[in-house]
Model the fold of this input.
Amino acid sequence: METVHPPPLDPGDRIAIVAPSTATSDEPLEIALDRLREGFDLDPVVFDTARRDPEWLYAHPEERAADLMKAFRDPEVGGVMAVTGGDDQLRVLKHLDPEVLAENPTRFFGYSDNDNFRLFLWNRGIVSYGAAAMPTLAVDREIHPYTERYLRQAFFEERVSEIHPAEEWSDGWYDFESGEAREWCANDG
Done:
């Protein structure tokens, strides 16, 4: 099977924001949208599922699939990014049209539960990327330079170069309400 690397985005391109798994609250979504606009010069287009409540999304796997298909079909959309992960995306897969995906290879960004869709794409030879609006773009006070570097490559370059280990990391979340920063840990090897 031939491997297809969907074309990279260009600054100013539209990126569809969808919820093939579940959604998040408005504040993190708005932070992610602002960072796509201001930090990456992309034009995020929020699809219906991205603003739905989790209960509605759970009850409508066919609508989540429909948003994916709509985003992939749209020739004005250069990339598709999941809002966040979840735990039931397997119920979405049966509603997808693999021919539409193969005919319209578009860069997809998502991980966690979205790895189900990424595997669905991979089984059709389509390369995708592990990033999502939440947490990739919305959990830190600012985007970490390591994250920005590789996300920029995934958005705008033909292929991501060799990925090097991060020099620091955290397993905590930035608390937007209190403004408290998390502790970063040094990579000692």
Notes: The radius of gyration is 16 Å. The mean pLDDT is 91.
